[in-house]
Amino acid sequence: MYEFLYSKILALCAKPAPATGIGVFRIFYGLVCLQEIIFLFYFSHLIFDPIPYIDVEFPTIAFFLCLWGIIASFIIVGYRYQFAVICNYIFWIVFVNFTAMQRDFDGGFDLFMTGAGFFLLFMPGDRAFSLDALRYKLSTPFLHYSTYPKPSVSALAYYLPVFTCLGFLYFDSDIHKVFAEHWRNGLGAWLPSTQPYYVSALDMSFMLNNELLQKMMGYTIMLFQLTFIFFFFKRRLRIIYLLIGIGLHLGITLSLNIYPFGLAMLAFYPLLIPFAWWRCLNNRFTARQPVLTVFYDRQCPLCNRTVLTLNHFDIFKRITFKNAQDHASAYSALASIDNQTLLTDLYALDQNNTIYSGLDTYIQILLKMGYLFPVGLLLRLPGIYQLASAKYRAIADTRVRITCNTDCAIFEPLKNDTLYYALFEQYGVQKPKAFARKITKITVALLILQINCSVHYGLIYRLKINLNQHPITAAIAQGSNALLMVSRIFLGIAPHALYLHDHFAGYDRILAITYTDKNGNEQWLPFVNEQGRLLAPNWGRVQSMWANFAVTPNIDNQRVRKFLMKVTAFWGEEIGLDLNNAQFQIKLKKIDAPTHWVYDQLHKNMAAPWVTVGTVTWTNKIIFYDLPHNMNAQ
């Protein structure tokens, strides 16, 4: 086993791959982070306050969320990449393990994002679609952009994160699914989609009411997760796993209200796209010949940096830049312009030999790039054009020119401070076999940690084996727990037992909340609607709080009271109720979560009638409950 892994890792270390997929993965990961930070900011009082808006325990949470949002934005644009991913990794660990996010508001994907953030520390995420790549070019402005080759990375940077983050997760999840009756019946995707608390606003009944389709989907998911880790790297099977995985997680994103989990998983799939596809896409969208030729002053540092910047954002390569001193004489359309005048501005020629200069050149560049077309049109508007032209003139007339032969030595390239460069491109190139063996040992260690988790929760816990009956097995259990704690916190290795039989068995009643408005009329709180669906934006970790912790197969009165307090206090403040005197009604309806297929089960659950079972009253910002002693008996 060790030698097999070693040979594979050694081969992948030496195999070059385009950096495009890793750049896209970095952007998607950063976007998922940013949307979740915005979500946390919006619900910060609900999640982090002991009593929303009344007892504020963490007044600086908003400040740290803003800092985290800035870091996530850095990741998206690829600015100071290594610093950003280190900070992001720390933020995930701190927020997940030291706030209410862990205890009551588990998002279902937090540990996955922690594990993905760990691998980003060592991935070359700054090589494609990043401002860091531009910063590196701008540090040596007199090097022509054509001297920078297309970035390539080690193929191992693609395969290892997929193997551990996706492969481990899928295999562990499949172990748990074997113990769930509805999954064994092929209804693993069907059952959550028939429960009002779990569905999105999209009505997917046309698919849910097809028994054969649902069972095909259920068994396909189980087979996909079981075999993924063993075969995803096979070239002929990779596309199959890519398409099934995208379909699976896109379905989760659209049909269920746990969209952050679906988006986080989808973010990984650019790493599964075959390298040839990235090269084909690059050739497909790159212009065969430029549509605009721009001439610039080669002895002007500002002009060189401008050209490097424009070329960096010209992703379709529709613009070519030439040194005016050397190339302008080759174009007859520029013959009437003397060299001194030509060097005072940026000049451009389009395919019709139309000459542009100054601000008009920039406008043409933006228009010809395609995706920046709106910005070019904006600069043409009266008023904006005059202001931009005056600003351009002020900069162009005060620019500095230098003699490159004597002054270029003052420009030094930025040092590459990424861990990927230090490990893969310095140590790995100098000692490839030693490096491959170290990576193999790390991979084996990760594999052991995952096996420990899967055996502990997927087999021993499921089979109800008591290890405390013997001193040796008890010591082994304690060591296993210690390993689980470390791997969970820092690597995100945890059991992936989502929506199984122990979650839905006995899940036959749900709760909703209404309130009495100023006119004495009963209104539905913008939380759970008349159908029993959780309304947006109460999805993701807020849905998890209500559907997984507050309302369960065995409703605990103490916990449900805690969350009724938090929800009524938060939404009462949001909709303008006076918590000095406000009354809420607690509604209950019976539903069903069968392990066998039932036609139109979703609509049957949604159509079930509500019954008022109690009230919650706020008086002088103190809550009073009038609820049954045993909610499960209602």
Provide a quick synopsis of the model.
With 634 residues, the protein is of the alpha+beta class. It is built from 29 helices and eleven strands.
Count up the helices. 29
Strand element count = 11
Share in β-strands: 5-15%
The average pLDDT score comes to 91
Rg, rounded, reads 30 Å
Question: How can the largest sheet be summarized?
Answer: 5 strands, antiparallel
| Class from helix and strand fractions | alpha+beta
The N- to C-terminal Cα distance equals 56 Å
Helix % is: 55-70%
Shape: globular
Q: State the domain count.
A: 3
Structural descriptors:
single chain, 634 residues, alpha+beta, five-stranded antiparallel β-sheet, four-stranded mixed β-sheet, 11 strands, 55% helix, globular, transmembrane
Explain what this protein looks like in three dimensions:
With 634 residues, the protein is of the alpha+beta class. The protein is built from 29 helices and eleven strands. It has helices spanning 2-14, 20-42, 44-48, 61-77, 81-98, 100-103, 110-120, 131-138, 156-178, 181-184, 205-208, 211-231, 235-255, 259-266, 275-285, 301-313, 324-327, 339-342, 359-369, 373-380, 384-396, 404-407, 419-430, 432-461, 471-491, 501-504, 541-550, 557-574, 601-607; strands spanning 16-18, 152-154, 292-296, 319-323, 347-350, 355-357, 509-516, 522-524, 581-590, 611-619, 622-626. The strands form three sheets. A five-stranded antiparallel beta sheet has the order 8-7-9-10-11, covered by helices on one side. The chain has a four-stranded mixed beta sheet with strand order 4-3-5-6. It has a two-stranded antiparallel ribbon with strand order 1-2. The protein starts with a helix and ends in an 8-residue tail after the last strand. The mean pLDDT is 91. One of its GO terms (molecular function) is protein-disulfide reductase activity.
